[in-house]
TrEMBL record:
Gene Ontology CC terms, in alphabetical order: cytoplasm; nucleus
Species name: Oncorhynchus mykiss (Rainbow trout)
PANTHER family (UniProt xref): DIFFERENTIALLY EXPRESSED IN FDCP 6 HOMOLOG, SWAP-70 RECOMBINASE
Protein name: DEF6 guanine nucleotide exchange factor
InterPro entries associated with the record: EF-hand-dom_pair, EF-hand_SWAP70_N, PH-like_dom_sf, PH_domain, PH_SWAP70
Coiled coil segments of this chain: 363-420, 477-532
Domain PH residue range list: 229-325
Keyword Coiled coil in annotation: yes
Short name of any one Pfam family annotated for the protein: PH
Length: 608
């Protein structure tokens, strides 16, 4: 329906430009040409027979009584498919027809080129109201007398359009020039038409001191934004998905898509980002030598971009959020939504103005009734001054009191309505403030989410570092456990060796004790042998004294045999004693060495 309404505006201008006599009738030949061009511009199949068949019932006049609108709806507009044609071509065709008849700059002044005038004409049609000053009864050969033949734009929309153009040119709109234009007699009588608007722009009041190229660029920018439904466009750096390199692209943002091209002529489209309620925009920190970065996240991909400065990044993020909001709300055009809001505000102001006018009219009526009643009372007083003086005076007082009460009630109602109006204004201001707070809260929440993601990344890095340190600690602990096990094994071996040596020492000590006991016995035997030797020596001496006695020679020879025998026993005893002493010394030395080794092993184990 929106596309049909926009097409009808342009076609309305083309039809009225063919109506030279302003009678609401156009010849069939002209309608054939118009229909043929509409078929071509709208990219629908041609049907040259349909027009003749439709108007074949009446050949008396230029157009049959059925009118052109039914044919336009049935054979042209009903076959239109959105997206299969360029609406700019239709607008350009209709502008070519109507501009030849109606666009004539005054006094030969032509500030605007034809392309700029065409763009302003399209902007005017977009912002004009949908109700046609020339109703479709004209297209059906029912033209009311003295009906205006041009669509009009409300003053607030004209002011809005002029402000947008001035902002694009970086100049300020002069309120004096605007008021002079609106207060013109022609504008007051017939309203602001597109031709009056173009004449005002051609006067050069808005473009004083401006170069034509700057004016053309400003008008083209506003045209692309409002008619082309482009929320924002400009150059950004984009990071690729395959080669991961950075390329400068021309981005064009619309309510549901974000296209990017090789250059601003938009001939080669490199890609399109589909926006939906699942998308979001996030600001990124500087990395890879790029600053002022942000990203657009969808369900499947994340697109990283870099703006020239912080202001541009803020403008782009805000514009993309606005586009996502329009997608969520199911709105296809930002400026259509703003246009509806301005219309609602204007209708609300008109309703309030009408209500105030009605109240003032009722007050004037009451005042007139009061004055008329006062005049009647004066006449009655003059005629019946003497007869009904008291009665007329009482009646007059009652009427005056009723009038005062009525006036007081009306004033009270007006006061209540003024209070209600003020309350509504305060409510609107509160809603606007609330909207600003909500937007600020949304920005804060987005910043909080970004900070939270940064914290999560830092926490992940800390966890990775902690895991690496834990692995190193576990490796050290495992190495320490292996060293402890090795030390324990060595300690166990040393203990076993010490136990073995202790047992050997005990055996050596036991043997030493045995040797000592044997030594003691040998000492006793030696002592006994020495006693026997002394006794034998004494006996030898005694027998040597008595050797001279011949009687005793035989016995002496026997006695002489004893000393050698005892002498050999004594020598053996002496040798055994020396050997026992040497063995005891060897045992003592080996025992001391084992004790030293035992102490050294204990010291090594304590050190370990």
């Amino acid at each position: 329906m929106e596309l049909r309404a926009e097409l009808l505006k342009s076609i309305w201008y083309a039809f009225t430009s063919l109506d030279v006599e302003k009678s609401g009738k156009v010849s069939k030949s002209q309608l054939k040409v118009l229909s043929h061009n509409l078929y071509t511009a709208l990219n629908i199949p041609h049907d040259p027979v349909a027009l003749e068949d439709h108007f074949s019932d009446d050949d008396d006049g230029p157009v049959s009584n059925q009118g052109y609108m039914p044919y336009l709806n049935k054979f042209i507009l009903d076959k239109v498919v959105e997206g299969t044609f360029a609406k700019e071509n239709v607008d350009e065709f209709c502008w070519t027809l109507c501009a030849k008849k109606n666009y004539r700059p005054k006094n030969g002044v032509d500030v605007l080129p034809d392309k700029d005038a065409f763009h302003l004409w399209c902007l005017f049609n977009f912002l004009s109201e949908d109700n046609y000053p020339l109703p479709w009864a004209v297209l059906q050969n029912h033209l009311p007398p003295f009906f205006p033949l041009f669509m009009k734009m409300p003053c607030n929309n004209v002011e809005y359009l002029l402000k947008k153009i001035c902002i694009a040119m970086s100049v300020e709109l002069s309120c004096v020039d605007m008021e002079d234009f609106i207060s013109q007699e022609a504008v007051q009588q017939s309203g602001i038409t597109v031709w009056a608007f173009l004449d005002f722009v051609n006067t050069g009041r808005l473009t004083r001191g401006m170069v034509k190229d700057s004016v053309t660029m400003a008008i083209d920018e506003v045209y692309q934004e409002i008619v082309g439904n482009i929320i924002k466009q400009g150059y950004l750096w984009k990071k690729g998905h395959l080669r991961r390199n950075w390329n400068e692209r021309w981005f064009s943002l619309q309510p549901s898509t974000l296209h990017y091209y090789v250059s601003e002529d938009r001939k080669e489209c490199k890609g399109c980002i589909e926006l939906s309620h699942n998308c979001c925009v996030e600001v990124l920190p500087e990395k890879e030598g790029k600053r002022c970065m942000f990203c657009v996240k969808t369900l499947t991909k994340t697109y990283e971009m870099s703006a020239p400065d912080t202001k541009q990044r803020q403008e782009w993020t805000t514009a993309i959020q606005t586009a996502i909001r329009l997608c969520v709300e199911g709105k296809k055009s930002l400026h259509k939504d703003l246009k509806l809001r301005r219309r609602e505000q204007r209708e609300e102001r008109e309703r309030r103005h009408t209500a105030k006018e009605e109240e003032l009219q009722s007050l004037r009526l009451l005042q007139w009734e009061r004055e008329s009643k006062l005049a009647e009372l004066e006449l009655l007083q003059e005629e019946q001054k003497r007869i009904q003086h008291v009665e007329l005076q009482r009646t007059l007082q009652e009427q005056l009191q009723q009038a005062e009460e009525a006036r007081a009630s009306i004033q009270a109602e007006m006061a209540l309505k003024d209070v209600e109006t003020e309350r509504q204004r305060r409510r609107i201001r509160e809603l606007e403030v609330m909207q600003l707070h909500l937007e600020e809260a949304l920005h804060q929440e987005m910043r909080a989410r970004q900070d939270e993601e940064v914290y999560f990344l830092a926490q992940a890095r800390l966890l990775v570092e902690e895991e690496e340190k834990m692995k190193a600690l576990l490796a050290l602990q495992e190495e320490q456990e292996q060293y402890i096990l090795k030390t324990q094994r060595e300690k166990q071996e040393l203990r076993q060796e010490m136990v073995t040596k202790s047992q050997a020492l005990e055996e050596a000590q036991h043997q030493l004790e045995k040797v000592r006991a044997s030594r003691h016995r040998m000492d006793q035997d030696i002592a006994a042998a020495q006693r026997k030797l002394r006794h034998a020596s004494t006996s030898v001496k005694h027998w040597n004294i008595q050797r001279e006695d011949p009687l005793l020679e035989a016995q002496g020879s026997q006695l002489c045999l004893c000393p050698p025998y005892e002498t050999r026993a004594y020598a053996c005893t002496i040798r055994g004693t020396k050997e026992r002493r040497r063995s005891e010394e060897r045992v003592n030395i080996s025992g001391r060495e084992e004790m030293c080794l035992y102490q050294a092993s204990n010291e090594d184990m304590d050190c370990a």
